[in-house]
Write a structure and sequence with these properties.
binds NADP nicotinamide-adenine-dinucleotide phosphate, 7 strands, single chain, alpha/beta, 246 residues, 7-stranded parallel sheet
Length: 246
């Protein structure tokens, strides 16, 4: 489905990003893995991707850093020649009630989760526009749609990602580039692993499908949006949340 394409996936060494990178590779795409911190998990993902017979390279980059993002995007374009698909997935949480939230926790989440999407999109945009059917997929969250107590920073960033997605869709449509967002609900990854069981049970009880989602269930939608099957979808926000937001 993605044979011959190159996909850049940020935060691809863990969780949802890893599942997206692996599923895109399984469907024929070569993958540029952007990670931060520990190179070992990124190397493991690279090896797993190479088992599908496609190319994978790893790039360390803090997506919130404008200049570092520029340098790494230039290196990716140099290495792969062109980029067809971008998945802006990297994200962090620094939860607290607004009354107790520090300025630095607000800024960090906005800088990684929102400015990071701007940085990588901007620096890859020319290459993606040159691709015949470019695809940009931003990982938002239902928190950006509904708001969520304890996540003023995160829900503001994710709502910003939704606005950025719609604007990018409008600005890039003339070059046949689509831009869509996926808004996951509650997904089993490192991000949710440390939540107390009582919080998980209470969340599950409000989800019509009565369970958390898996990274693969988000990756399925990302592959669909990257494929020819989604050629007439742009500016959309697809909730993948077990019905949480109905
Ligand atoms: P995760 O496993 O913690 O993945 C986040 C990834 O982003 C990690 O690989 C992390 O690297 C990377 N990252 C963090 N800061 C970065 C930076 N400054 N530059 C580059 N990479 C950075 O959690 P996840 O659940 O898979 O999250 C993936 C995306 O889904 C996020 O955007 C998140 O907001 C969104 N999401 C998750 C859920 C959920 O329930 N899990 C729900 C809705 C939306 P390190 O591990 O090295 O820090």
């Amino acid at each position: 489905m993605l044979k011959g394409k190159t996909a850049v996936v940020t935060g691809a060494s863990t969780g949802i990003g890893k599942a997206i990178a692996l599923k895109m590779a399984e469907n024929g795409a070569s993958i540029a893995i952007i990670y931060i911190g520990d190179a070992n998990p990124a190397q493991d993902v690279k090896k797993a991707i190479e088992n599908y017979g496609v190319r994978a390279e790893i790039y360390e980059c803090d997506v919130s850093d404008f200049e570092a993002s520029k340098t790494i995007c230039e290196k990716i374009i140099e290495d792969f020649g062109s980029v067809n698909i971008l998945v802006n997935n990297a994200g962090i949480i620094r939860d607290n009630l607004l009354l107790r939230m520090s300025e630095s926790d607000f800024d960090s989440v906005i800088n990684v989760n929102l400015k990071g999407v701007f940085n990588i999109t901007k620096h890859l945009s020319r290459s993606i526009m040159r691709a015949e059917e470019g695809r940009i997929i931003n990982i938002a969250s239902v928190s950006g749609i509904m708001g969520n107590a304890g996540q003023a920073n995160y829900s503001a960033a994710k709502a910003g990602v939704i606005g950025l997605t719609k604007t990018t869709a409008k600005e890039f449509a003339g070059k046949n580039v689509t831009c869509n967002a996926i808004a996951p609900g509650f997904v089993e990854t490192d991000m949710t692993a440390n939540l107390p069981q009582a919080v998980k049970d209470s969340a599950n009880s409000t989800i019509p499908l009565k369970r958390m989602g898996t990274p693969d269930e988000i990756a399925n939608v990302a592959v669909f949006l990257a494929s020819d099957m989604a050629s007439y979808i742009t500016g959309e926000v697809i909730k993948v949340d077990g019905g949480m937001c109905i």
